[in-house]
Request: fold
Amino acid sequence: MGLALLLLIWLITLVSTYFFVAKTWWLPVGAAASAGFIDRQFAITFVLMGIVFLAAQLSLGYIVWRYRETPTSPPVSYSHGNTTLEVVWTLLTAVLFIGLNLMGSSVWASQRFDPPEAGAVKVEVTGMQFAFYFRYPGPDGTYGKTSPKLMDPSAGGEAAVGLDTSDPAAKDDVVTGTMYLPVDREVDLSLRSVDVIHNFFVPSLRFKQDLVPGLNIHMHLKPTAIGEYEIACAELCGLGHYKMHGMVHVVSQEDFDKWLAAREAEKQ
Amino acid sequence: MATPATVHAHAPQGFIRRYIFSLDHKVIGIQYFFLALTAVFVGMFLSLLMRIHLVWPSANLPLVGEIKPETYLTLLTMHGTIMVFFVLTTAPQGGFGNYFLPIQIGAPDMAFPVLNMLSFWTTFVAFVVIIAAFFVSGGAPLHGWTGYPPLSAVQSAGPGEGLGADLWITSIAIFCIASLMGALNFITTTLDLRAKGMTMMRMPLTVWSWFITAILGLLAFGVLLSAGILLLMDRNLGTSFYVPLVVVNGQVMLHKGGSPLLWQHLFWFFGHPEVYIAILPGMGVTSQILSTFSRKPIFGYKAMVYAMLSIGFFGFMVWGHHMFMSGMSPYSAFAFSILTMCIGVPSAIKTFNWLGTMYKAHIRFQTPMLYAIGFVSLFVSGGLSGPFLAQPVLDIQLHDTYFVVGHFHLIMGVAAIFGMFAATYYWFPKMFGRMMNEFWGRIHFFLTLAGTYAIFMPMHYLGMAGGTRRYSDYREVKYLATLIPLHQFMTYAAIITIAAQFIFVINLFWSMFKGPKASDNPWESTTLEWITTTPPPHDNFGGVTPVVHNGPYEYGVPGAPKDYVMQTDPAVVATH
Reply:
């Protein structure tokens, strides 16, 4: 029985570890400035926790087999514990866990506490059951007013976010269902929701933030590679949650300008 | 106070007073146990439907027909709610705690037997109410077990958000009241009814775990109860505690000025301690069984007690780690993150001590021990994904993905359930007077351990790849569609593992009537439930009040006549 347990625990441990180490499934390739740091922190945590995982499971399997009761077992070692050992492993774990934590805090801080770089592209993300809309403030750099009374989700686009077209600042606002961003330029995001909580999750850009009705959340990110990246809603928002998704097109500055100009032209 | 007025030497003779509205903590414990057993099968059946739907989305199933996206969400909502409240909270504490806490401290009953009966029947009503949600017009709610408003607060936000959601929140509120009554009873009993010589530091670790769990329950359920009442008011009386100005389906709602984050704070202020309410009794029973079947004292008894106390203490300061992505102040994330890492420390101490207990021991592999060993393995696996999720930067990638689902299922789901299995196999002889079948117990164990790892370990891979949770269909998003093979594997594993649970149920009921008769102390254990007859008499010790001389885990004492010394035997060593 001890041997069977040892084999099963070791087998589970080694098979589980294999798929982590082989990276059969892993984080998607990062395409944002923060990806390097996040991925490194993930890797460090992964290695440390992996070592603890292997050590604990392998010794568990070994101990249950090695100290199984047999007719020839020596008497048990009668002991109520060892205070020195308790103190040592408490301190070791505390240092490991808290140290790991402190290492990870700087990227969190920079994305949230520092203002975006000057000249960042402004984009507003609005979530509603079950779509994302993206608004660009246009040449005036100012978002026009929106009003809940004007919101008409079935009409889509400007009407869905409730754009008040009587506001002069709204004249050049562009509202789209797909997000375009220029590469290597900081994006100043305003995140909001009109109905329930949604989440704007772009795995490749290492970005995730709840869109909360009543809040306008500001964050910034910098895409670093041209490509198309999927957006998936990551907060349960109702029956269509599974089909609330979208696409971020990260393009060259030139293509971005062209795209935005074409949208402005469509509007006129 | 110290002598429960209603305890008599003889049980009432009428069937109803004896088995239905019983005041006997043992009968009430068994009632809780069977309520939880019913609930776990309902919850498991819902998860089976979910797993089948994810792999065969348009399958036409017998009895339930085709599962629509909204039905899938009601399944996950009801699965989570039923499992967390009516299984993980009910069986370890209400079931085993009720039955064994008074006996293990040498008391004739709980401090408040009538309150005890009331708390069971209130829990029962809560269960009936939540099951009723399936059958009302619109069906059960789809807002997840966490019930985040505005989705859960606005009736038009989705199907099931009408009467079904009202029943859901009402059931939880009733459950809170029942748990508060239970918690008071457990705390008073532990403090006031201990037998002579049963000092706090001679209590079995199981008693410590039920005691600390009761304190957590007392502090946590009151908050959830208030939060639930506010949600009911937002839903039905036009208040705006949780709902700001929102436009749902193009309709401007009448709410304004509320905060969706307020609910999250209140919910997780309960929700995180709830995790420990589910797992602490499992830790207690694992310690008890590892020591018994290792024939060795528990390694570091005091460290185990302090570890449980600090887990309970820190458990109230980490709720914000569920909210890193919620729009909560990012500054507070630092505090919640550090405190969360702190809670890993006492958890690690417990693991070290369990390994220390088995080191240089004489391990006997009866089924309770197998489950206790399984608990340790699962606790390690489920625990080590914690330090990933506790770091806000990593949570950016992992929050609300299957990584989280894998994490909490391993630790508060499967590990806690292994604690319950261990407890069932261990105490069944005392509760029902017969032994369970060892052979089928072992088969059940090996299938369940391998099976649960096969279901929940791949969830971590899925989550790292960005696999979002609570999606009824993964074919819509391209990168999620590539992960479907993992879902298929998990579904096959789930079907096999769920099938294996019938071995347990058959073994349980068969043994109840046909198992070999159990002796008073079949495992050669040391704690007080094993000095009394099997099953125990109505007043637990047949009119005798036990006097305690020893700590709870005196195994392998050098020079002692047997390899175990009962707590009531003459003092052998001055250990505590």
